[in-house]
Amino acid sequence: MKYSIPLKSVLFLIGLVIMTLGLNIGLGGIPTLGWQTSEPFIAVINDDVYHVQDSHIRFIGGIWFSIGAIFSLGAIMQATLRPTLIILCSTIAFAGLFRFSGLNGGAVFSAEVMLSLVLELVAFPLLAWWLAKSGKPTSIVAA
Asked: How many CB atoms lie within 10 A of CB 17?
């Protein structure tokens, strides 16, 4: 199996970024902690409904944080976590397609979303391919 420092570094860095995004949402809820934007973007009209939805969003932030932790652990436990990481890369790519369900707002192709969209639909499938390739033997030597 091929264990490369670049792949381990990429996995660790991706994990840290995803964990940071998870903390932003998980600890900040719907308004987030403001690590991606400093502009207010929400007004609460119904307090009870807001707090229920905010709780759900915080849960999703926790899931995102956990996914990042798995990527970071993958840098250390690549052989064990490789299948899981490939599935997570596929999950992220599939989830990126859900952005297209919000075409009415026009944000999908905006500069603010485009980098995320490209990472989800291009970079994560490429990372899955890299991970799959890293699991193949480097050479077969007859004894």
From this structure: 14
